Amino acid sequence: MTTTNTTAPAAATTDTTAVQAPTTAPVLTRCAEAEICADPSSTMTLLADSAHTEGGFTSYRSTFAKGAVGAPAHFHTKAWELFFVISGSLQVLLGEEVTVLGAGDFLAVPPHTPHAFAAAPGAEADVLFVFTPGMDRFDYLRLLGSVMRGESDPSAIAASAERFDNHYVDSPAWRAALARNA
After folding, report:
1. What's the pLDDT tens digit per position in 62-89?
2. Of 5, 51, 62, 88, which residue is most buried, by most CB within 10 angstroms?
3. How far is it, in rounded angstroms, from Cα 62 to Cα 78?
4. 75-114 b/e with 16+ CB inside 10 Å = b?
5. What is the dihedral of CA 15, 17, 21, 23, to 10 degrees?
C-alpha cells in the first residue's frame, strides 16, 4: 500500500522572531500625576524608579534655576547616568574636564567616572536623567531635597552613600569652575 502526501509544504518565512508576551507592564507616568521634589534651586519630576522597571532604569526630570549648583563631584559604581538637555545649558564635570551641554545634547557617564553638574553660568537648565541599570534614586532625591530645605541633617547624605551608590569625591577642576561662575 502506498500513501500520497496531499498537504502542501509550509511556506518559508523570513521573519524568525516570534512575538512574545511582555513580561512586565509598560511604565506610563502622566505629568499631572508625577511626584515633584523641590529644593531652593531645582525641581525634580519623578518619572520611573527601578522598582517600576524591574531594575532596568530610573528616570526623572530636573529643572535648574539660574545659578543652581546641581550635584557636587561624585561617581556611581553600578550604573550609567544619562543626561539629555531639553532646554537651557548644563555645565558638567567629566573626570577632570568641564564642559557645557546645550539644548538637545546627550551625555552618557559610565560607572566609576567622577562627574558633577550645575546650571551653566547665567542659564537655566531642563534635563532628563536616566540611570541604567535602575538605582533607588527617588528616596535619594527626597533626602537631598529635605537636606537642601534644612529639614534634615547634611550628614544623612554621606551616611547614604552605599545605599544610593552615590560616592562624593573632591575635584579641584569642579571647584575652580564653580569659583569662576560666582
Report:
1. 999 998 989 999 999 999 999 999 999 9
2. 62
3. 22
4. bbeebebbbbbeebbbbbbeeeebeebeeeeebebeeeeb
5. -160
Query: Model's pTM, two decimal places?
Result: 0.85
The Cα 129–Cα 85 span in angstroms is 9
Provide CB contacts within 8 A for 182, sequence distance 6+: none
- Intra-chain end-to-end CA distance of the chain, in Å: 98
Residues in Cβ contact with 112 at an 8 Å cutoff, skipping those fewer than 6 apart: 75, 76, 77
CA-CA distance, 81 to 106, in Å (whole number)? 11
Q: Dihedrals φ, ψ of 170, to 5°?
A: -85, 140
3-state secondary structure string across the chain: CCCCCCCCCCCCCCCCCCCCCCCCCCCCCCHHHCEEEEECCEEEEEEECHHHCCCCCEEEEEEECCCCCCEEEEECCCCEEEEEEEEEEEEEEECCEEEEEECCCEEEECCCCCEEEEECCCCCEEEEEEEECCCCCHHHHHHHHHHHCCCCCCHHHHHCHHHHCCEECCCHHHHHHHHHHC
Q: Tell me the residue type at 26.
A: P
